[in-house]
Amino acid sequence: MSTTPRTTKRVLALLLAAAVVLLGAGLARPDASRAATATPTSTSAYVPPVKHVFVINIENKGYDTTWGAGSAAPYLAQTLRSQGVLLNTYYGTAHNSQPNYVAQISGQGPNAQMQGDCQVYSQFAQTGTAAPGQAVGNGCVFPASVPNLTDQLKSKGLAWRGYMEDMGTPCRHPALNATDDTQKARVGDQYAARHNPFMYFSSITGAADCGQHVVDLNQLSTDLASTSTTPNLSYITPNLCHDGHDSPCVDGQPGGLTSVNSWLQTWVPKILNSPAYKNDGMLVITADESDGPQSDATACCGEGPGPNAALPGITGLGGGRIGALVLSRYVKANTWSTTSYNHYSLLASIEDVFKLPYLGYAGSSGLNRFGLDVYNSGWNK
């Protein structure tokens, strides 16, 4: 989402969030070198034997806009929706965009710079830790001591890849502590680093094999050709036009949900027809956040103030109601779940699938994780 100041209220809210960083630093443990820890994993029998997870995020779309009767994305809201289970009480965890993506792979809450979409690709300055598994401080690129989902997958010998449209050069990100030059789309280059959460963890960007794991979207077609070449986790981000962020787009395309619809019609069939998906796959399609902090900053699932942000949603506690669609052989077509979920729930549910410990807020007490309301096909009977 664009972070150009729009109202005095928003500016004051961001200043308040920055002040909370300093307060959180004073209350946190003094040991800044201690890694954020994970809580034990679930071994629930209701989790199906999924071995390949696909995640697609669109941008800045509230529930009614995306899933309502007048949706400008009928392929998503009607065709695909009829094939899966719609989570109609699924929420973003923050505003603006960047912290929602980070939440999905690490369970870390936002800070002031993240809420500002990391205009500067700054090093995270850690001052301590706080429960559950939160790095206390401010900044954007977390040190290697802060774990993320890819660290967990690697520890179990599981494969992962991030597929980023228009990324071009693998593992592409701004120079550390430099201005992020991907904040605005350019003709032929509509990649946004802030929509690529892997670039905000030093354990990924500093690794010699980063370029093998975070690649341009074009690689996905090749990888889907066989089960053996399809990663266990495929995290897919369209460009600033095809994710619906821009409207109209810099290249003349309409953008918004119209371009989302066209992009999904091209790429989702490739996933659904792939051997890995057919064998044991699960596809989750959601949005990063609602239309913006002024329109909807509601939350669910017990989300509250974090050590680095009193209001994760800038004007409220969350990123608003967005919805999510889950498709899988373990899911019954054209069904609903009214259980409340958010991005931390998604992370915890992926960790359940791969039998991994819960990271950060994914380990929050009482947080809902996908259960038989989602895995509702009767697969385990």
From TrEMBL:
A molecular function (GO) term: hydrolase activity, acting on ester bonds
Superkingdom of origin: Bacteria
Keywords: Hydrolase, Signal, Virulence
Signal peptide: 1-28
Xref: InterPro entries: Alkaline_phosphatase_core_sf, Phosphoesterase
The protein's name in its UniProt record: Phosphoesterase family protein
One Pfam assignment: Phosphoesterase
An example Gene Ontology biological process: phospholipid catabolic process
Gene3D superfamilies associated with the record: Alkaline Phosphatase, subunit A
